[in-house]
Queue: 2 jobs
Job 1
Amino acid sequence: MLVLASSSPRRATLLREGGYPFAVVKASVTEELPEGILPATGVRQLAIRKAEAGLTHWLELGGDSQDVVLGADTMVVLDAQILGKPATLVEAETMLTRLSGRTHVVLTGVALISGSGRLKADVVETVVQFRQLGSDEIQAYVAGGEPMDKAGAYGIQGEAGKFVASIQGSLTNVIGLPMEYLSEQLKAWGIEQTNIASREVDDGLSTFEGFTGGTPTP
Ligand SMILES: Cc1cn([C@H]2C[C@H](O)[C@@H](COP(=O)(O)OP(=O)(O)OP(=O)(O)O)O2)c(=O)[nH]c1=O
């Protein structure tokens, strides 16, 4: 059985839409990383941290050691700097001003772990280009509340979809789980889709120029 170690509603929605039956378990971890760590190393570490915490909790709840626990972490990287979730509205505005007219990278670390000691963790990268944003539209977007629980202060699946000029790589990777990569991995772990649900998110972004699907990076 598949267990999602996450409190992100987006990750649960993506797995459900992917047709996977799963349980959800909380994975409260500190998201602090050592100063100067490479973003890809950091995002992978956090995904493992979440999966390990989730596994511990799941086994305490009486879960089977053969169950497969999934942890993930998403970060936005601009000029080699990590943009996490904004702590304040002002910080959200600053992040979006920095992203305006620029190309950035979204990294999602994905970790699969089981009680038998098996572990697989990778990082999937999507390149996102924003068009030039006006300060009025940034302010209006931040006032709408969408940025606050999201890396880089935006949600590509929401109103910020209109900020995006192009995307290269997996769209679902930006939203929190690279489903193309993940379904390959889950197959290798013996986890199959049982039903293919229709997409709940009407984003219209999969037709964007350069959409190629996710590519794992070492
Ligand atoms: C860039 C971007 C991020 N996000 C979200 C995905 C993640 O939920 C969030 C980044 O925070 P994460 O720390 O990756 O995840 P989380 O705290 O929401 O959930 P958990 O740790 O319990 O699994 O930003 C979007 O929903 N859309 C976007 O376009």
Job 2
Amino acid sequence: MKQMTRVAAQDVETSTAEGPKQSTEAAIELGKEALRLGKRWRRQALPLAGIGATHAIGATASALSGPAALVPVAAGWAASAGAYGYVHQRASRWNRVYAGTAAVSSAGWQAALALDGSAGIAASLLWASGAALSIPWWVRHTEPEPDITAEKTSPAAHMALPAVTSGPDPRIERWDTYIGATGKALPGSNLKQVSELPFGWRGVVELNIGEHWHSIMKAQQTILSVYDLPDGRVFVEAIPGASVRTAQITVLTRDPLQAVVRWEKPQLDPATGTFPLMTTADGEMLHYRFWWPGGGATHGLVSGVNGSGKTKVLDLILTEAAASDRVYPLIVDGGEGASLPHWRDRVKLFAETPQDARKLLRYALRLMDRRRKVVKRQGGGSVEPSPDMPLIAIVMDEAHKLLMNDEDTGTDNGDVRRMCEKLAQEGRKYGIALVLATQVPSAKQLGGSTVLRDQLKGGTVVGLRVTERTSGNMISSGAPMPEGLHELPAVFPDGKPTRGLGYMLTERMMRARSLLIENPERQSITATRLDTDCASEAVPTMTGDSEDLFVDEQVSPREAESSSDDASEQLIEEAIEAGTHADPLSLMQATGLSLSQVRRALAKHGK
Ligand SMILES: Nc1ncnc2c1ncn2[C@@H]1O[C@H](COP(=O)(O)OP(=O)(O)OP(=O)(O)O)[C@@H](O)[C@H]1O
């Protein structure tokens, strides 16, 4: 009996101790549930919060009298304007319009309640009209109730997957409903590993077996529509080393490229041969490469229509080159001295006429010959740029004008093409790099030279905005492009021009913008010397004379041919005097002239 009494007493003790414990647990559960519901429905509750705040401001103002009543209304109006300003900066067009309407309505109701009192019919009307205005918001933000059964019934699973505690990610839900569901753009696909970025979010998309990630790129427009975004905000990229069924998707809810990023100081890293040139939409720096350590020089191509910012890109490349003691820049200004005038007195050779351009290229070929001997002496390999043997960078703006034949005047620029081809093909080993700027990144603008196209594609290729779709676009690595360069907008949504906006041919196929250098002429220059072999080569004089090899409009084709022949003859004479064998092949190589030009010049020379 005693024992029974003890057990009963123990039961009472346990139940009295467990009572508060259970109620605490219940309170915690209730709190959690309230928190979950709050988080889950916070977007839907936003209009109610707005109506409540409007009512409170109106009620406070109506309870006060005299000028004091203006204070809550003024504060309320400022809050409405502030709320709209916040949304205007960040949200989509629909949200901006909605926020504007809501802010104006709220301000109006605050004043109405302040005048009419908050207890009368005005307050009921406020709630009724507020609810009516909320309907479009609720319709637009309808989301299916997440399935939290697993979360509730299996606390262990809930702990193992912390992401589930705040309910399913709405971005994943949208994907599943509008993209991954049967009959949608990518049936059976999954969005996983969603993480936040400063300007949006990123995730991994996994497709059904048998699918390739290129199909995600084809669904880009659907993805933009599902997430309510303007063009150019979704980027799909392969994941190196991962299955072709998966890809990384970057979604930008804001466009960071709207902000101009300024170049600050020279950053050419001698250890890598690179410097930062562009920043991607997700904040990564893309680098221009002058050389590969141990692998020789690399070439570059910058393309874009007038005003796209390509000369500024060349300015940046030249500034980095001029500031380094390992790069010796030479400039050909195909814009007849008007494209890069501020560099005229800042580099050793600046060619602004087609004739001077030819002289400069022949000089570069002679330097290459001299370096050939140096490389032979060092037992092969390639020239590693150093202060004693700098990289020779030949930068040609408006290169298409010198590389394409001019059908109007009948000018054949085959000699310029051949010289550039030779420099592009052989320059790598000898530390000679070509940096060309054209209006379109196509072989056509390179005078149809597939040799130049292939060599340049192996280096840094920057494609800024173009106006028309082009065939043979060089900004392509085999995978489909997120968009054509002709699809890049001319202005950002805020109306500012998109200068410097484009793509760099790297594994990051994402919109990028070049760093802006404001005053390249104010940047310091490092005196760089050529190696002794090259330094002993006679430097041609740039006359700025535009006659001679270039046919101008007033000259008849016959006169043009004879003037061209005179120039060829002069070149041949110079080459023979410099020790070149007088056979056509050697002379073609040394001068960059065509076989017929060499033959004609030799015939005249020998007369
Ligand atoms: N990355 C950039 N960010 C912001 N503004 C830029 C950028 N690049 C260029 N700009 C602006 O655009 C203007 C035109 O650039 P730039 O002269 O390089 O164009 P372009 O393509 O070379 O045109 P053109 O062939 O007519 O000379 C510059 O003066 C500069 O103000």
